[in-house]
Automatic annotation (TrEMBL):
InterPro entries: Dipep/tripep_permease, MFS_dom, MFS_trans_sf, MFS_Transporters, POT_fam. It comes from Paenimyroides ceti. The keyword Lipoprotein does not apply. The chain crosses the membrane at residues 27-46, 52-73, 82-99, 105-123, 144-164, 170-189, 215-234, 240-257, 269-286, 321-339, 351-372, 384-406, 418-439, 459-480. Keywords: Cell membrane, Membrane, Peptide transport, Protein transport, Transmembrane, Transmembrane helix, Transport. It holds the Pfam family PTR2. It is a multi-pass membrane protein. Residues 1-485 form the Major facilitator superfamily (MFS) profile domain. It is found in: Cell membrane. This is Peptide MFS transporter.
Length: 488
């Protein structure tokens, strides 16, 4: 594994292959995610409140399983086999729902949760492996990869929601399954170019022993499907799951930490853990997008952008992905240009900047109240500008975070650490729901104006906390930087 060759070019061709594979996977994932809540209300006849809770639970499970998928990739399967298995589970899950949306829904979702767990963290780890230690192209590479994620998210959200609403739910889930087939085929054809990257860590073992271990992972994953099925059917189990998985993950982390012989690698892992902790806060605020901001868009925004009629929820769903696609390459170029002059801010400062921009964004969301009419309807333009600020903040933190994890983790823990990064997103999603519920107006018969006041009060507070966190990170950055050793 150490003998990773130098992949040439500003953006190595292997990066483009991984970009495409991840694009299809996110197409499938965000396609499914885009229809979830509407489908549950429409077909499973859940109330909106229950659909929201169930949606949050599913999202939390999806990201929580990345931790498990990451560990098994490190120890047994390697990234390539994990990815293939994960893709198959996602295809099967969406295919089953397409076959009978009503009866197979929860079962199919359980499969996609396992599938994403084995897929999502490991493809990001492979991107990291394209670069040698200290390679200045790494952050820019992750910025590009992040664009691929958002091209997929934009197309998936649009296509599957369209198919589901205007044709049938079966077709929407079928589309998700089909794009994942494309992603898998693409991966199978291009994986040879990755060389040793992502190969099994137990390749040296005798064949039967190796096969037995791999089989144990696959069987374990299959056995956990009915358990997940039960847990997502009953939302109260989600709370228990979330109380348990985080501490278990932390204990596992500290055991691995204690096994590290060198102080320098222990320090790097601690630095990663601190930044992962901050990312929980970031995603708890960021993920208002799926909850309170979606409701705000539904209730309080005029359906016109620069004079063109448009559903505010479409803007709420797509503005972020669109801005990522436009700005990720520019920011990638900016980092490279700054690096050439020796002026690129380090990872920790970028994290701080991410929070400052997030704070700015929530001030802009807050300020929509000053543009509202007496009915409480306000400007979609201002709302969109706020999303621009959200996105710039995201670009300072989320792709940088992926890159940072691959820099700070020893090779044999890369999958687990990437899983821990996404586990933070699981908690972010979970907390986002709680914050959103707390901000909503307690009055059942609240007027639109009351709702506007209630949500924007909340946004003002989020702005303040985000700014505070950003300043805190920048102030303690020398300390974290020291833990990170030579990593910038
Ligand atoms: N939008 C990004 C993705 O889908 C980041 C998700 C996350 O880390 N919560 O990969």
């Amino acid at each position: 594994l150490e003998a990773i060759q130098n992949f040439e070019g500003k953006y190595p061709k292997q990066l483009w292959y991984l970009f495409m594979v991840e694009m299809w996977e996110r197409f499938c994932f965000y396609g499914m995610r885009g229809v979830l809540a509407i489908f549950m209300v429409d077909q499973l006849l859940l109330t909106e409140k229950d659909a929201n809770l169930k949606y949050g639970a599913i999202q939390a499970f999806v990201y929580a399983f990345t931790f498990i998928g990451g560990i098994f990739a490190d120890r047994i399967l390697g990234f390539k086999k994990s990815l293939t298995f994960g893709a198959l589970m996602m295809i099967l899950g969406n295919g089953l729902i397409a076959a009978n949306p009503h009866d197979f829904f929860y079962f199919g979702i359980a499969l996609t949760i396992i599938g994403t767990g084995f897929f999502k963290p490991n493809i990001s780890s492979m991107v990291g492996d394209l670069y040698k230690e200290g390679d200045p192209r790494r952050d820019a590479g992750f910025s590009l990869f992040y664009s691929g994620i958002n091209v997929g998210a934009l197309l998936g959200g649009a296509l599957c929601v369209y198919l589901g609403k205007s044709h049938s739910w079966s077709l929407a889930f079928l589309a998700a399954a089909v794009v994942m087939v494309i992603g898998l085929v693409m991966f199978l054809f291009t994986k040879k170019y990755l060389g040793p990257i992502g190969n099994s860590p137990i390749a040296h073992m005798p064949e039967t022993k190796k096969r037995m271990r791999e089989a144990a992972v696959y069987i374990g994953a299959l056995i956990s499907i009915p358990l997940i099925f039960i847990m997502i059917r009953n939302t109260q189990y989600t709370d228990i799951f979330m109380y348990v998985i985080g501490p278990v993950a932390l204990i596992y982390f500290f055991i691995q930490l204690a096994k590290q012989k060198e102080k320098a690698s222990r320090n790097k892992l601690i630095a990663a853990l601190i930044l992962i902790f901050f990312s929980i806060i970031f995603f708890a605020f960021f993920e208002q997008a799926g909850g309170s901001l979606a409701l705000f868009a539904n209730n309080n925004l005029q359906a016109s952008l620069l004079g063109i009629g448009i559903d505010p929820n479409i803007v709420n769903n797509s503005a972020n992905s669109l801005f990522v696609i436009i700005f990720a390459p520019l920011i990638g170029i900016l980092w490279i240009a700054l690096a050439r002059r020796g002026k690129e801010p380090n990872t920790v400062i970028k994290f701080g900047l991410g929070f400052l921009l997030l704070g700015l964004a929530y001030y802009i969301f807050f300020s929509t109240r000053f543009f509202a009419n007496e009915q409480g309807i306000t400007s979609l333009e201002i709302f969109t500008v706020a999303y621009l600020a959200v996105t710039l903040g995201e670009l300072c933190l989320s792709p940088i975070g992926l890159s940072m994890i691959t820099k700070l983790s020893p090779k044999n823990l890369a999958g687990m650490m990437m899983g821990l990064w996404f586990l933070a997103s699981a908690y972010g999603q979970y907390v986002a729901g709680l914050i959103g519920a707390g901000m909503s107006s307690p009055n059942a018969d609240a007027s639109l104006l009351d709702k506007l006041i209630s949500y924007t009060n909340g946004y003002q507070q989020l702005a303040l906390y985000a700014l505070g966190t950003g300043i805190l990170i920048i102030v303690i950055s020398p300390f974290i930087r020291k833990l990170m050793q030579e990593v910038k």
